[in-house]
Amino acid sequence: MDRPVEILLVEDNEADIRLTREGIKEAKIRNNLHVVRDGEEAMDFLNKKGDYRDVITPDLILLDLNLPKKDGREVLEEIKNDDRLALIPVVVLTTSEAEKDIVKSYKLHANCYVTKPMGIDQFVEVITAIENFWFTIVKLPTGIKGK
Fold first, then answer.
1. Does residue 143 lie within any of the structural domains?
2. Count: domains in the chain
3. For residue 142, is it within any domain?
4. pTM value?
């Protein structure tokens, strides 16, 4: 890919936002990280509404489940039910280890489910692994890039 990877992080916890930034920096993949802090803002970003009318469609979405205004499950469902957005890989990145959350996320067509590790080093390692997996190993459809 000759342009930076566009990543949308949907996360309301400032500490997790900082850790994600650190992990992405460590992955050494050229990227633009966009951060939104609630589910409604995520959908505005993805639908290019208001302040987000000129944003690029992300290549990957990192989605927390427990969000204000509109929770991550609702956001995931909206993304996967929208033909314009459905091909964007969504990684659920959350603290929940509840089986019901895991099952529900996959039923809503999450591309993978990752539980946030507690330690800083492990968190950075997980983010680095996610980015390396999705942008060096996996073949993504070109139809979503750069929209």
1. no
2. 1
3. no
4. 0.88
